[in-house]
Write a structure and sequence with these properties.
globular, alpha/beta
Length: 164
């Protein structure tokens, strides 16, 4: 009787209507996801550490967007120009982390695809410039460097480590 009611509840529950993947399939999926993505905090930590982070950051937005604000040290290469200019600006032996505006924009995904098609190792920075600024990391504008107070909904208020 309990088994039947659990199955009925699960069938009606929108979360479990499609059952979770088997653990091995989930491990493969999430492992692959991490091979394709990096988050803002991890990118910032790697850039802030002493020495070479082992990757370059690429801003794939327009010049007007770049001027409005970008990650310090990033390379500016709009997606439409990647095929034409990537070989002049990027070392094929160095992985590239792309970003665009934020989670509502797939420009970094398009840039990552264009770079991968040219043979580059690439990851996309989840959250883009929006979350870089919202998490309180310093950025550059056409007027100089800025830093905003971290948004408590995107970053811990009293710690540099979110515990993720």
């Amino acid at each position: 009787m309990v088994m039947t009611s659990q199955l009925t509840a699960s069938a009606a529950n929108p979360v479990l209507r499609v059952p979770p993947a088997a653990p091995a399939a989930a491990a493969a999926y999430f492992g692959a996801s991490l091979a394709f993505h990096a988050d803002v905090s991890d990118v910032a930590a790697a850039l802030a550490a002493d020495g070479d982070p082992g990757f370059v950051v690429l801003d794939s937005r327009s010049t007007a967007s770049w001027d409005q604000g970008h990650v310090p040290g990033a390379i500016h290469l709009p997606t439409a120009l990647i095929a034409e200019q990537a070989r002049d600006l990027l070392d094929p032996a160095v992985p590239v982390v792309t970003y665009c505006w934020g989670p509502g924009c797939n420009g970094a995904t398009r840039a990552a695809l264009a770079l991968a098609e040219l043979g580059y190792q690439v990851k996309e920075m989840l959250g883009g410039f929006e979350y870089w600024a919202r998490e309180g990391f310093e950025f550059e504008t056409w007027e100089g460097r800025e830093r905003r107070t971290a948004d408590a909904l995107t970053a811990p208020v009293d710690s540099d480590d979110c515990g993720c």
